[in-house]
């Protein structure tokens, strides 16, 4: 297997085509990546901005260049010696009439040849939750009629420009009569004859007959566990792998599959041993991939969480949380907040999925005739608590039951439930445990297997939506910690823990991707790096927020349900704005403020709706949203000069500290265990917010120009930091080194180095070593206070008497700084002030 030395993620669509990407290939070669990492490229719905809503897995999307454009891109990559990693989506497809398989299922119901391709409950009519209101309401409003489909000429139920095909049997021999149907009663009778039922989108959380992706009814689950479905959905991608056009695969949302392990075994068998495969999988604290999965690892969300151990001042977090609590006027209880978010998901957003599980459980009870005394309410309460208490995305049971390690997870969950404040009936818990472990009577074994699969496919979405997309939009003490893959509850952060995580990563997943920005992260990597610095100055930050709130008090709107924004949201707004503020934006730059305002307003709307407190996607509170967004826009109004001047001045040391954090974060990603992934444009500064902001196309022309000026960085003036040029050149230097010494980074030891002296806690030092090759990495951390006192980005004399102690393995050797080219003779210690003479980090390669 050819493992990438580094990948570069490009988001296709929104103007990015294969031909445009091909033009970038020489730049990517110069940057030093080994593989282009492409977002999904198969045919998606019209106007798709991301490609995960696939309508035809057998066609490369014409909207981005089709097969011919794809082949040209592959040719361009091969000409430069680069490979291609492709993001594929086995879990779901678009529930769209543009999808020919889905259209066939709508038209022919259970008789369709694709009826088993999708994860549909055929015990009832297929639900289509795409009406603005109930079928009856929309029908009586005259919005549904019977008309010929413009594309096929066949009779259809037409509503708001969408033509739902009629089942042939419902109009056989009387097509003309059906097309003349008028009146609500006749149309309603015709609708009743269809294998589907049109209904309101609001009914989807409670009454859906198919498995959806998370909460998105427009994405329907695919049954790739079925061999014929696997073949149909993977025919083209496997052809691309076998012909050498594609070198690796990224598997989107592997936890959504019925049996991820079996799927990956089949994929590995078909793709062959040389195909590099990684999976999108959120690992919980201490969790690892199931043994035996034939993959190189995950896409690296856990790597982002690990970085916080090194870049956050853990000793100040309690102070920060206290100041946040004072601001919002109440203590923060994260455990209670997590429970509330999960209960919201169980009782509302995923109520239909939970009800289906409950129905299955009751059927199992009746089939066994052992639990006849358990009422529906008792089983429901136990199921609810079990789902809420689940600490990881899922277990990986099969038809044979739960493997031992998953039994241990389940035992811990059950213990948590039994010792919790809302303990359900013990017999009901034991009953559910037997179902999940497969300890049921033969008559119930089939249903128990289905229950286990459905339960496991639900716990992942429930965790994701309750933590990443609810709790992390409600709790704002330090937004940098509210990231995909992060732990929902407070934990201790330390440098020792970071080193331990890196050693574990080398042992378990040396070939996994290491990401710092992705299309799904809540903040760009440099936004996050800047916000980490707030942990170093919690009282300074809290004082500034109090001052800004007072300055902008007149912009708060009094609503019947409270002020808009409320204090917690104000805190969030100032922190989010601090993270996204362009490095060189001056308070007097009206054009720059307006550009930021538009991005910021879109973020605010999404943040408010994801929190699901006073507004949500399903129940929009227009008055509240309008008031909060107006407040946010007022912050960036040129007329708000006093605030803007104060805000920008206060932000200066956070910006400087963030730039340093960003360089350290980048160095770690490129030198620590794992395969570094560069998200488009993040080789420069990435100060983006959540999608769609983070999916904007970067300024590739500027990046190409900056890289063409590459040379030895014997000095790094502040402008080099602020433009992102220094970061880009560090990326290029390390990427080329990874290509020159791939074994050093793939298999080399990870050795934490001891730092001594007055500023030891402000240094991260480690080495990579393999045979005679060695790289010593020394980078700053927690430098906010020093930078606040010293205007310059760095001063070597500030590191006087701080040294890195080297073991015999690394001592008494000559090294070369890969950024400056300077030779350095090292004895048993490295003086920080000496190696930081040109820039405050050192990348020393043994010669």
From TrEMBL:
Record-listed E.C. numbers: 5.4.99.15
Domain Glycosyl hydrolase family 13 catalytic span(s) in chain numbering: 12-714
A GO term for molecular function: (1,4)-alpha-D-glucan 1-alpha-D-glucosylmutase activity
Alphabetic keyword roster: Isomerase
Signal peptide limits: none
Key word Cell membrane present: no
EC category name: isomerase
PANTHER family documented for this protein: ALPHA-AMYLASE FAMILY MEMBER (PTHR10357), MALTOOLIGOSYL TREHALOSE SYNTHASE-RELATED (PTHR10357:SF216)
Protein name from the UniProt record: Malto-oligosyltrehalose synthase
Phylogenetic lineage: Bacteria, Pseudomonadati, Pseudomonadota, Alphaproteobacteria, Hyphomicrobiales
């Amino acid at each position: 297997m050819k493992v990438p030395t580094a990948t570069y993620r490009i988001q296709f669509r929104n103007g990015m085509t294969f031909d445009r990407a091909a033009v970038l290939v020489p730049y990517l070669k110069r940057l030093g990546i080994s593989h282009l990492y492409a977002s999904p490229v198969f045919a998606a719905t019209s106007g798709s901005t991301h490609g995960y809503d696939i309508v035809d897995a057998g066609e490369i999307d014409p909207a981005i260049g089709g097969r011919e454009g794809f082949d040209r891109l592959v040719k361009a990559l091969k000409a430069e010696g680069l490979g291609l990693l492709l993001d594929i989506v086995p879990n779901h497809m678009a529930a769209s009439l543009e999808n020919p398989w889905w259209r066939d299922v709508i038209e022919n119901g259970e008789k369709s040849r694709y009826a088993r391709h999708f994860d549909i409950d055929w015990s009832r009519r297929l639900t289509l939750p795409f009406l603005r209101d109930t079928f009856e309401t929309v029908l009586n409003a005259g919005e549904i009629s019977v008309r010929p489909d413009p594309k096929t000429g066949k009779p259809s139920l037409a509503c708001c420009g969408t033509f739902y095909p009629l089942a042939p049997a419902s109009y056989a021999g009387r097509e003309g009569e059906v097309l003349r149907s008028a009146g609500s009663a006749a149309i309603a009778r015709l609708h009743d004859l269809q294998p589907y039922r049109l209904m309101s989108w609001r009914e989807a959380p409670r009454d859906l007959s198919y498995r959806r992706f998370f909460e998105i009814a427009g994405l329907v689950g695919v049954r790739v566990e079925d061999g014929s479905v696997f073949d149909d959905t993977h025919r083209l991608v496997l052809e691309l792998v076998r012909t050498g056009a594609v070198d690796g695969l990224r598997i989107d949302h592997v936890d959504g599959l019925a049996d991820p392990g079996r799927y990956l075994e089949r994929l590995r068998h078909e793709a062959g041993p040389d195909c590099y495969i990684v999976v999108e999988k959120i690992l919980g604290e201490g969790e690892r991939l199931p043994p035996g999965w034939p993959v190189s690892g995950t896409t690296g969300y856990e790597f982002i969480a690990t970085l916080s151990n090194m870049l956050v001042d853990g000793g100040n977090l309690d102070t920060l949380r206290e100041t946040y609590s004072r601001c919002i006027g109440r203590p923060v209880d994260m455990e209670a907040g997590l429970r509330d978010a999960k209960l919201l998901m169980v009782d509302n957003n995923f109520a239909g999925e939970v009800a289906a599980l409950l129905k299955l459980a009751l059927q199992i009870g009746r089939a066994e005739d052992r639990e006849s005394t358990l009422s529906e309410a008792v089983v429901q309460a136990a199921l609810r608590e079990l789902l809420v208490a689940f600490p990881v995305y899922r277990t990986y049971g099969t038809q044979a039951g739960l493997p031992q390690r998953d039994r241990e997870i389940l035992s811990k969950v059950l213990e948590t439930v039994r010792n919790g404040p809302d303990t359900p009936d013990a017999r009901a818990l034991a009953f559910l445990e037997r179902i999940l472990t497969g300890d049921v009577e033969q008559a119930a074994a089939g249903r128990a297997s289905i229950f286990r699969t459905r339960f496991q496919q639900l716990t992942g979405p429930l965790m994701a939506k309750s933590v990443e997309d609810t709790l992390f939009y409600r709790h704002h003490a330090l937004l940098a910690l509210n990231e995909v893959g992060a732990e929902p509850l407070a934990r201790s952060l330390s440098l020792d823990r970071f080193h331990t995580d890196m050693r574990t990563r080398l042992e378990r997943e040396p070939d996994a991707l290491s990401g710092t920005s992705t299309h799904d992260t809540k903040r760009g990597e440099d936004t996050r790096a800047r916000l980490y610095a707030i942990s170093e100055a919690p009282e300074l930050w809290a004082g500034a927020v109090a001052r800004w709130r007072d300055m902008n008090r007149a912009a708060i709107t009094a609503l019947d349900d409270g002020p808009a924004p409320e204090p917690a949201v104000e805190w969030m707004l100032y922190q989010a704005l601090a993270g996204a503020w362009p490095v060189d934006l001056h308070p007097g730059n009206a054009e720059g403020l307006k550009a930021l305002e538009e991005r910021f307003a879109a973020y605010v709307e999404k943040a408010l709706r994801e929190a699901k407190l006073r507004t949500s996607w399903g129940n929009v509170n227009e008055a509240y949203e309008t008031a909060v967004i107006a407040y946010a826009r007022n912050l960036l109004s040129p007329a708000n000069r006093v605030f803007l001047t104060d805000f920008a001045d206060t932000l200066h040391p956070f910006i400087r500290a963030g730039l340093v954090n960003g360089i350290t974060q980048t160095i770690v990603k490129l030198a620590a265990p794992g395969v570094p992934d560069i998200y488009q444009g993040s080789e420069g500064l990435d100060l983006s917010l959540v999608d769609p902001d983070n999916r904007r196309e970067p300024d590739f022309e500027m990046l190409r120009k900056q890289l063409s000026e590459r040379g030895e960085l014997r000095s790094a003036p502040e402008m080099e930091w602020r433009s992102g040029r220094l970061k880009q050149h560090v990326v290029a230097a390390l990427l080329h080194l990874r290509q020159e010494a791939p074994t050093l980074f793939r298999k080399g030891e990870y050795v934490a180095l001891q730092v001594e002296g007055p500023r030891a806690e402000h240094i991260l030092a480690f080495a990579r070593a393999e045979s005679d090759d060695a790289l010593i990495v020394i980078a700053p951390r927690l430098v906010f206070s020093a930078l606040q006192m010293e205007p310059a980005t760095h001063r070597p004399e500030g590191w006087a008497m701080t040294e890195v102690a080297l073991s015999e393995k690394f001592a008494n050797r000559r090294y070369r700084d890969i950024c400056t080219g300077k030779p350095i003779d090292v004895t048993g210690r490295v003086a920080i002030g000496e190696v930081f003479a040109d820039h405050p980090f050192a990348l020393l390669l043994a010669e």
